[in-house]
Specification:
By secondary structure, the chain is an alpha/beta fold. It is built from 29 helices and eleven strands. It has a seven-stranded mixed sheet with strand order 1-3-4-2-5-6-8, sandwiched between helices. The protein has a two-stranded antiparallel ribbon with strand order 7-9. The chain starts with a strand and ends with a helix.
Length: 705
């Protein structure tokens, strides 16, 4: 797979291979466009149920009846007149990418809205195929589409598909080949008022000789009459010069604009009339070709939305689902974690015998087996089972279509914080990985609101922090106290997550009132239809795309960290190891926050990845390279109690785990996205100040009372 980050700078000739047709795959968000792309190219790119999930454009190859195709999966867009960075990426490739043909994927359940993009693409290129996807859902809703009439009205091929089942894809490729080679027929054009059409024709005649063959003079003329900074910049980059600087174009454009002004048109009213013509044309076509039974309005989507989006029930349902996910994770991870730990630590015996057989020096055995291997065994046994449960459950909610409803419900809260409602989406991404959440902030148009989302993203716990939180809750509220059940532990974890969300709101509000002042912007959020999750694919996708990816990153970082800790534990300065010397040096400062020097040192050394903080704490207490063989969390609980832990120590560690500096990967991502050390430093110190401030206050209250 190849990623195109800026289609304006990469034309088709740069990526085309011999005898290969380059096809632009466009469509609104949530129409199954990326699913079609994956099915055609045999790739397994992750698709999400919210706008802006795909910011880059993925390329994939396929072959059909001897013809090779290169499909470019463009980010979802509602309009060629882009309002966000991902829409600009799609617009620029459609307009200036010189593709051989375009496929516009539409949701068959809401064709009228999707037709707006189809009509705009037809203004640019006649070599277009309309792909009606999700036909199975349309049938369930008793929605019927006269595809023959639709094809006749649009003047382009119309193909029906059900991408999830692979139905209609062969016919789609046949239609693409047919439209690419055919020169007959003329697609439908949007009827504009006479005065606008006349002005458009005047300018088109002048600009036509200056344009390459793949650009439509009528479309360019209309864009010049309705200036758009983004399109103007991309057009100038494509041509190598500005049309506004050409004497003939300037004269023709000035005359056309003067005529329109005399007829009462302003720049805004001209744009409104063009948009109105598009909308009316889409309405007329849909009214003629789409037939819906009266009972289709009372479908399952509406019934579920009455529960998930109702002001009375949306919050209780969100909390209940969040609680359910955490309860299943805590209960389900206990036994697999214990079994995996036993298996991995038994492997140490085999490695030890192997080292003895080759008469390896004891220091080498200590470094590789007692240091590196034991850390890896701990990380895998503690992290893998919870992630293998949590991520599939989270992905099922995503695949079902519930996560956009969460964003909708939280939009009002972000508006109150003077932030963008899209921050709810990036916050959801942060639960998987804060670095991914930071990158996802590109979907926010306002630079001010984008910075707020970037700086506050690490206030929600990523998957690297969940295992530590779950382990602490299990040890001190389940294993350590038999009176409390896993249900209460899941409830506590839910409350912790709600605390992180509340702090995100407060921090966003604080930033918007201080260093990033401003008013919130509006945005359009599409709620996709509920879909039956493909459980098998969800499990495979979540395990390979998320669980193993995160685990692999943790292992890569944990191995050298284990080596460093072993060296610090075995290199002595005077009568003490380097590890103990550092811990004692930090201890007076750490005690102000209800923790000790070992804990603080573990968080400092865990900067490369949050996943290794807990094993570093254990190794620090053992004062050697030998990590505990965690037959159960009860053993680990006993170790912590023996080193002075109380229930308040556990609460303090959970607070710091929840709020502390982002990991190195997230910090680097923040710097790349902002290009500023100032904002990166703020993103580093804000959660740190919150976490240690909370611990200081907690320790003060506990000491007094």
């Amino acid at each position: 797979m190849e990623q195109l980050k800026s289609p304006t700078s990469i034309l088709t000739n740069d990526i085309r291979k011999d005898n290969e047709l380059v096809i632009a795959l466009a469509g609104n968000p949530n129409v199954g466009k990326s699913t079609i792309f994956n099915a055609l190219t045999g790739m397994h790119q992750h698709t999400g149920n919210w706008p802006g999930k795909t910011v880059c454009s993925a390329c994939g190859n396929c072959e059909h009846n001897g013809q090779k195709y290169l499909f470019v999966d463009l980010p979802g867009t509602y309009s060629i007149m882009a309002h966000s960075s991902e829409e600009a990426v799609a617009r620029d490739f459609i307009c200036f990418g010189k593709s051989d043909a375009s496929v516009v994927v539409c949701d068959a359940t809401c064709l009228e809205r999707n037709l707006n993009l189809v009509l705009q693409v037809l203004e640019i290129t006649p070599k277009t195929v309309l792909c009606l996807n999700l036909m199975d859902e349309a049938n369930k809703k008793n929605i019927h589409i006269d595809t023959e009439l639709l094809e006749k009205k649009l003047g382009i091929p119309v193909v029906t598909t059900n991408a999830r089942e692979g139905i209609g894809l062969s016919q789609l490729l046949d239609a693409v080949k047919r439209v690419q080679t055919s020169s007959s027929g003329k697609p439908l054009s949007v009827p504009l008022p006479k005065e606008i059409s006349f002005a458009q024709h005047q300018v088109a005649v002048t600009v036509a000789p200056l344009l390459p063959d793949f650009l439509s003079a009528d479309w360019v003329a209309l864009r010049l009459l309705c200036p758009d900074e983004g399109i103007d910049s991309s057009l100038e980059q494509c041509l190598g010069f500005s049309l506004y600087q050409n004497k003939d174009v300037k004269q023709s454009l000035s005359k056309a604009q003067a005529d329109l002004h005399q007829k009462g048109y302003t720049s805004q009213s001209l744009r409104d009339r063009i948009v109105d013509a598009l909308v009316r044309q889409a309405e007329n076509i849909a009214a003629a070709c789409v037939f819906a039974s009266p009972e289709s309005s009372q479908n399952l989507n509406h019934k579920l939305d009455r529960i998930f989006l109702s002001p009375k029930t949306c919050v209780p349902v969100m909390l209940l689902l969040l609680f359910g996910v955490f309860w299943l994770t805590i209960v389900g991870a206990s036994y697999p974690s214990e079994a995996l730990s036993n298996l991995l630590f038994k492997g140490q015996e085999g490695l030890t015998k192997l080292f003895q057989f080759f008469h390896a020096p004891s220091w080498l055995h200590g470094v590789l087996v007692l240091g590196v291997y034991r850390v890896l065994a701990w990380v895998v046994s503690v992290m893998l089972p919870p992630m293998a449960i949590f991520f599939p459950l989270f992905t099922l909610l995503e695949d079902f279509g519930y996560l956009p409803r969460v964003a909708f419900n939280l939009d009002h809260c972000f508006q109150k914080a003077h932030a963008c409602g899209k921050q709810a989406l990036t916050m959801c991404m942060g639960f998987g990985c804060n670095a991914a959440g930071v990158v996802g902030c590109r979907i926010i148009d306002s630079p001010r609101e984008r910075l707020i989302a970037i700086i506050t993203n690490s206030l929600v716990p990523c998957n690297g922090r969940f295992p530590s939180l779950i382990a602490l809750i299990s040890m001190f509220f389940v294993v350590g106290n038999s009176l409390l059940s896993p249900i209460l532990s899941a409830l506590l974890l839910t409350l912790i997550i709600l605390l992180s969300v509340a702090v995100t709101f407060l921090s966003s509000r604080l930033l918007s009132k201080t260093v990033l002042k401003g008013q919130p912007s509006s945005f359009a959020l599409e709620l996709p239809p509920y879909r039956k999750p493909q459980i098998g694919k969800v499990i495979v996708r979540s395990i390979f795309d998320r669980t193993l990816f995160v685990l692999g990153r943790a292992v890569v970082v944990a191995a050298p960290a284990g080596l460093i800790i072993w060296l610090m534990a075995n290199i002595s300065i005077g009568s003490q190891s380097l590890l103990m010397s550092c811990s004692e040096f930090l201890n007076p400062f750490a005690q102000l926050f209800g923790i000790d020097g070992v804990i603080l040192l573990a968080f400092i050394l865990g900067f490369p990845a949050n996943e290794i903080v807990f094993p570093l704490i254990v190794m620090g207490y053992l004062q050697s390279s030998i990590i505990i063989e965690a037959d159960s969390l009860l053993q680990m609980h006993s170790l912590l109690i023996a080193n002075g832990w109380t229930i308040w120590t556990a609460v303090s560690v959970m607070l710091i785990c929840l709020f502390h500096w982002p990991c190195s990967t997230t910090c680097l991502t923040i710097y790349k996205e902002t290009g500023s050390l100032r904002w990166t430093a703020l993103a580093f110190f804000l959660p740190t100040a919150i976490g240690f401030g909370c611990c200081f206050l907690l320790n003060l209250v506990v000491s007094l009372f």
